[in-house]
Amino acid sequence: MAGLYVPATRAGDLVFSSGAVPVRDGEVTHRGRVGAEVSLEEAQAAARIAVVNALASVRAEVGSLKRVMRVIKLTGYVASAPGFSDQPAVMNAASQLLIDAFGEAGQSARTAVGVAELPLGVPVEVDLVVLLR
C-alpha cells in the first residue's frame, strides 16, 4: 500500500490500526461501490478480509493476538452508491468476525460510515482500537 504511515501504532495498552482494506496476497479482492458494482454479500466478505488485515497489523505490532484483552472500537468506511444506506449490515460481518475470534471481548463500539470513494477503489476500509493485557 502507498502512503506515509505505519500499519499499527501503540500508545500504552492501546493499539490503533491504520485503515485496512480487502487485500489478499497483495491483490485487491473487491472493487466498486456497495449498492452498484458490489452486492451487500460481497461487501460483507470484503469487510471480513479487511478486519483480518487490521488484526494482522495489530499482531505484527504486539507479537500475538493473545495479548488482545478487548476490541475497543471498530470503524468501518463503506464506499456507497447513491441510495445505499445499509452500512451497518456491511460492518456486521466484521463485527461478527471479531466476536467469533475473541468472544465477548470482541464486542466493541462501532461506527459505520458511508463514503463516496475509498483508496484503490475498494468497497470497505476498517480500523481498530484494541486494549492489550
Fold and architecture overview:
The strands form 2 sheets. The protein has a 5-stranded mixed β-sheet, covered by helices on one side. It has a two-stranded antiparallel sheet with strand order 3-4. The N and C termini lie far apart (30 Å). Helix 1 packs across helix 2 (87-102). It has 133 residues and is an alpha+beta fold. 29% of the residues lie in helices and 30% in strands. The chain is built from 2 helices and 7 strands. Strand 5, helix 2 (87-102) and strand 6 form a beta-alpha-beta unit.
The biggest beta sheet is recorded as: 5 strands, mixed
Mean pLDDT: 97
The number of distinct helices, counting runs of at least 4 residues, comes to 2
Share of residues in strands: 25-35%
Give me the count of strands: 7
Q: How helix-rich are the residues, as a percent range?
A: 25-40%
Give the spatial strand order of the biggest sheet.
Answer: 1-2-7-5-6
Gross morphology is globular
- Secondary structural class: alpha+beta
Which key phrases capture this entry?
two-stranded antiparallel ribbon; 5-stranded mixed sheet; 133 residues; 7 strands; alpha+beta; 29% helix; 2 helices
Summarize the structure.
The chain is α+β, with helices and mostly antiparallel strands and 133 residues long.
What layout of secondary structure does this protein have?
Blueprint (H helix, E strand, L loop, with lengths): L7 E4 L2 E4 L5 E2 L2 E2 L11 H23 L5 E12 L7 H16 L6 E7 L8 E9 L1
Helix pairs in contact: 1-2
